[in-house]
Amino acid sequence: MKITISASSILMNGIRTVLNVVPPKTTLPILSNMLLETEDGHLTIGATDLDLSVVTKIPAQVTEAGSITVPGRKFAEMVRELPDAPVEIEVDGVKVVVRCDRGVFRLVGIEKEEYPALPDVPAEKTVTIPSSSLQRLIRKTVYAVSKDETHPSLWGAYLSIVEGAVRMVATDGHRLARMSLPGEVSETITEGIIVPPKALNNLSRVIGESEAPSRITIGDNHVVFDLENARLCVRLIEATYPDYERYIPTDNEKVVKVNREVFEGAVRRVSVLSNSITRQIQHAIRPGFIELSSSSHDIGGEAREEVPAEYEGEALDTTYDFRYLLDVVERIESEDVVFKLDSSISAGIITPSEEEAEGEDYQCLIMPVRVTG
Description:
CATH class of the largest domain: Alpha Beta
Oligomer: single chain
Strand content: 35-45%
Structural class: alpha+beta
Radius of gyration: 25 Å
Shape: elongated
Number of domains: 3
């Protein structure tokens, strides 16, 4: 194998696309390597941890076709420090020589035959959606995925692609985020699959600001995302997702509307003096305003601030984890935020005050916390 890449920055961009997938520690040494392989005037760069595989292509002048795997993180460190000049990579057996400007670097790789192959996912269940839509689905929901190892079914986000709509849901039992977007889907592709958050976060990073279409292919145990410049193959979480719909209240009739920026700023200020363990902030909801308050016995401090609000119902006192509130409010783009409430101990629903994109439906649920000192 002998190739030339026109600039080290181009090579580094390809490496960055896959680097996060290279496990820092592994019982299988080959997984610490990146795959380099020539294909149709390109260099293909790949990485896998067996649950997530990412492959990308960069343009290259191919003098001699071939393949090799190289120590991923060391290779990335080396390329990162190179001047932005043409890079030549030459492979002889398992010996890899990298030349750039006046520098020569030598590595010992492992042959491609020892590297895990990508799963073969038939293209029978495939749909194409805008990358920007996929990005919004992830950003609006993945933060609510559970980290509780006793509930594997909640370790990922639930993705369903049915006629006319694409939906993603995440919950950890204390909060829930549900996002639905219209999609040009003529039939049901999947009632629901559970996608791990590591894969979704990497997918979001690779998409970036891209507006190009993304193709989603669903297999029995894997889902494949084909993007403009990369392919991600993800092992699905094999579990039964809970019937989340029955946990979403339908009779929360107390409606409170607040300015998003004003409310977020007040929550941040009041949270500074909240309990460091429970992170709770009390909400005294009254006609015309919400009084936010917190206290911390650890330092003997307390905070109190009023936020103007549109509300005409009876007085209601409730308490929320401020981090859960901020996770939602930070992702809402409308000028105002709407709270739909019922009682001090029942789940509250938070939504944008208006549709943020045509046909979009975004809804979040937060459970109150028990008041402690």
